[in-house]
Amino acid sequence: MSADEPDADADADLEPSVPDEYSPYTLQQEDGDDARHAFWADVVADRVEAQDPDEPIVIKGGISPSGVPHLGNVNEIMRGYYVAEVLRERGHEVRQVFTADDRDPLRKLPRTLCDLEGNLVDLGEVDAGALGRNLGSPYTDIPDPFGCCNSYGDHFSTIIQDSADALDVPIELVSNTDLYESGDLEDVTEFVLEHQDRAREVLSKYQDKVDEEYVPFNPICEDCGKITETVTGVDLEGDTPTVEYECTDMDAGDRTIEGCGHEGTATLREGKLPWRFEWPAQWQTLGVDFEPFGKDHAEGSWPSGQDVARNVLEIEPPVPMVYEWFTLEGEPFSSSEGNVILVSDVLELLEPEVLRYFFAKDPTKARDFSIERLDQLVDEFDRLEAIYFDEIEADEDEQAFAERVYPMLVEKPREERIRLPYTFAAVLGMFDDPDLREEVARKEGHIPDDAPDWAVEGALARVERARNWARRTGNEFDYELKRSAIPDHEFDAATESALEELADFVESGDDVDPEDLQGEIYETAKRHDVDIGDFFGAGYRLFFDEDQGPKLGPFLAKVDREFVVARLRRER
Description:
Its main location: cytoplasm. It catalyses: tRNA(Lys) + L-lysine + ATP = L-lysyl-tRNA(Lys) + AMP + diphosphate. This is Lysine--tRNA ligase. InterPro entries: aa-tRNA-synth_I_codon-bd_sub2 (IPR020751), aa-tRNA-synth_I_CS (IPR001412), aa_tRNA-synth_I_cd-bd_sf (IPR008925), Lys-tRNA-ligase (IPR002904), Lys-tRNA-ligase_SC_fold (IPR042078), Rossmann-like_a/b/a_fold (IPR014729). It is found in: Cytoplasm. By secondary structure, the protein is an alpha/beta fold. Among the domains are: about 80 residues, no CATH class; about 110 residues, Arc Repressor Mutant, subunit A (Orthogonal Bundle); about 80 residues, Arc Repressor Mutant, subunit A (Orthogonal Bundle), CATH 1.10.10.350. Helix content is about 40%, strand content about 10%. The strands form seven sheets. It has a three-stranded parallel beta sheet with strand order 1-2-5. It is elongated, with a radius of gyration of 30 Å.
C-alpha cells in the first residue's frame, strides 16, 4: 500500500488508542477457544468469514510506483495470496486486487531505476532532467524514462504485474489514476467534500496541521501539471462538482517543490484525495474485505483509516493484518537508495516454489533475505518437501505445517520429484557439460536409475540456478572446470612427481572417499617435500586455471575418475 502522501506516517504522537477488536495485529492476539491452525492464513480466513462478506470476497494490496518494485514489495502480494487461496479452498469466489497508487506525486528522484527486464541503472543513465522537471506531478503524467511504457507509473506497475505473474499469483492490477479519471472515485470524493467539517474533525486527531481552511482534495494544476494542496473554494451544486485552487509550494521531506502560482478550476476527476482519505475511499469503491500492510501503517495510517471509514464514509473497514518487514543482507530494502533485488533476479537463483515458501512463513516475524546464505533457504524448503512426503521424521508442528502449506507452493505435489542439494548443484555448476552434470549426480546417488525424465530435467535445472548464485556471490563454488584443454602451467620435478603419485592413488580405487582424497593431497605433498600450499595451487591451476578454488579433494572426488587421472598426468 502507498506511503507516498506526506501525512502517511506523520504525527504518530497524535494517534489515539484503537479498540482491540480493530487491531491490525491479527495474528498476535490470543484465539481463545478458536481452533488451532497450523497456517497463519487459516486464522485470517476465519476472521474474514466471520464478517459474512458478500461474494466475491475482495482482498487488496497496493503500492505507490515511485521506483524499483523490489522483493520487499511482493510481501503484500503474497500475504494476500495465501489468504485468497484458503478462502478459495473453502468454496468462496475471491478477487485479489492490487492498486497502483499512481496518481501520487513524484516527491524525490530515486538513485536507482530498472528496465522491464529487471536491469538496474543509475539515475544518470536515463534522462534525469526530465524527471527533475516533473517533481510534484503524478506518476502517470511523467514520461517513462526508458521510453517503453505510457508513463513512469505504468513502467513500474508493469514490473509489479510481471513479478506476480512469475510467482503465479493472479492479481488484478488497478490503476488509481484510472479510478479517478473513469469517475469510479468521484462519488466518494464528493461525499468527503460534502462532509468537510466531519472530515476535518476526524483528521485533526492524526494531523496537527488541519485548520478551518483545510479541504481534503488535491487538484492537479492545469498550467504546470503539479499536484497542489491549496483549495480556495468548493462548488458541489452544479452537474459537475468542481474546486477552485491555487498552485502553491509542496513540502517534500527536506525540500520544497515550487508551485507555479496559477489559479484555476478542477473537477473531482482532475486531482486526488489525500492519502488518509484515499485509502478508505479505495475500500469503499472496491468493496475490500481484507488488506495486509506493513507495520508502519499499523501505527500510522490504519488508525486514521478505520476512523475515516466509520466516522466519515460510514462504512466498515476491512479485516486488517500487519506483517513485519524483512531486510536484504541485514539492511532495509530501499528503492531510492538502490538496496534492492527484484523477483526476476531471485528466480534466476532459485525455483519459484522456494520463494513462495519464504512468504508462507509467519508474517509476524522479521526475517532477512540473504543472497549469501540462499542455500539455507533452499535447504529449508527441501526439508519441508521431504516432511510432506514422509521421507524424514519431524515434530508435530513441522508435520502439520508441511501438510497444510506444501500443496500451495507447487503446481502439483509429485513424490517422484528430485531435489539436488543446493551446494551440490553449485559444484555441478562448475561443469559446462550437461551430460557430465547428470553423470556425476547419478554417480553420487542423487538421481535414481529409474527416475522419470521430467524429474531428472527438474533436478538438473537447479544446477544453473546454483551456478548463478555462486557467480553472483563470488563464493567457494564460483569456479569453472577447464575440461576442454589443459591450462598453461609450469611445475618443478618434485611437483610433477607428486601429481603422478596422486594420479595413481585416484586410479587405484573404484570409489574415492572425498575426505580421504583431501588427506592424500596433504600426505603426497609431504612425501615429495612440496609446499602444501603450492601443491594445492598446482591442482587449482590444472583444473581451474586459477590460484585458488574449492576444497580440492571433495571436488575431484565428484568428477569422473578417468578425467581426473588424465589431467593430473597432464595428458588431457
